[in-house]
Amino acid sequence: MKRREFVKLSAGAASLLAMPTALQSCMNDMNMDMNMAADAVPVIEGAFSAPLSFPGVMTSSFSMTAKSNTAALLNSQSTSVLGYATGILGPTIKVNTGATVSIPFQNQLSEETNIHWHGLLVPANMDGHPKDLVNSGANFNYNLPIDQRAGTYWYHPHPHGKTAKQVFMGLAGFFIVNDAEEQALNLPSGDQELLLVIQDKRIKNSQLNYAPTMGEVMTGYTGEYILVNGSNAPFHNVATRYYRLRVLNGSTARMYNLAFSDNQAFDVIGADGGLLAQPVSVTSLMLAPGERADILVSFKSYAIGTEVFLVNKTFNGGAQGKQEFKIMKFVVNQQVNDSFVKPGQLSTIQPLPASSAVKTRIMKIKGMMEGNGNMNMGGMGSGMHTINDKVYDLNRVDETVKAGDTEIWEFDNSQGDEIHPMHIHAVQFQVLSRTGGRGALIATEQGWKDTVLVMPGEKVRVIMTFPQKKGLFVFHCHNLEHEDDGMMLNFEIV
From CA 386, how far away is CA 378, in angstroms rounded? Predict the structure, then answer.
């Protein structure tokens, strides 16, 4: 039974009369709560008068500290946040393939935390599994061997039940890997390479407000203010040339259908796991929480003084997608001669054929009132989201896979009416197919991925070869409210 069907049925007088009084009241409250959470919180656009800022960059000497900070998120008013450096967010880490990076980490929070290196193929004991937590006041040294291709990766905490709040409060940052293949392309760099982490925040009385209702646990917690690199409604001056935008959806739940206000085309050149084979020209691009996109955009044809906005376009599916809004502004303020030529070939993507898989696993993903008509309740407000009817158990191994094996995993959201971006630790995968919903694969799904969007009504099949990194990992929904609510399972590579 889907949520909309439940709402209709729960309003029936006959059903209510048959319920005990306490249960009636509970169901009425739940029904009202879900109605209020049916749509994402409407976005309030800012003035686009604050210059875009960028986190600091670390390339050689690394250290990370999770701590309480303050930052001016709105109207220059001081707001309490969490970060890994001064202010909100953490520094951008840039390394080369083949390096081994040692990152001493200190937890100065009042609660336990850790760091998950999202998209990095690191040993199990370095991955930031929910069992590997760093207590308040304690230290841990992350040793990360970088043995993968160039790409736009990121980091964030992963304590079960607290991930969404800690990310919402500011704990996140970019992790950029470079290699010789990418450098040979001479893509826009320096001031022409813009790293953009897009997040929505709910702010009350000038302070971040993370307090999801049960209905917002169901749909995901959304905010009315859109931040780019920690700034609300920023602008950035650009010249008449190509720019490379590395974009991360760092929100806990909000989707973005990215486009430009004049509907200009742009080229997708990379996805979660690095470069695509060729640039793919699009006019809009869906980006779910946890996903990254690497794009080329040209401002060469614009007159000085032109303003162009990066916007969110409406889209179909789930409770989100009903509002178009501006995210940030680009102002063309300089005329230059740009010699950059967009490459026709970027990389080689060797497809993994479905015939190479030794096993296919079905992962049924659903919320409390989806699927078989039963209410899947592990208690009001907890345990409402499951994979294969299981709520996360830290001490249970749910799937066992063999290092070196190639498998197909099918994420089945065919009976659901919620959006689920599914993330698998330890491995990059290719998207084989999508049935129901959108049907065709999008541009970013033509390369290597670690997070894939599964819309309501869809089944998505992915294929991957598990690395020689034995140990315990997790896979989960990257709607972080869903993850914290239990939509996560352990898998072990043996």
Answer: 10
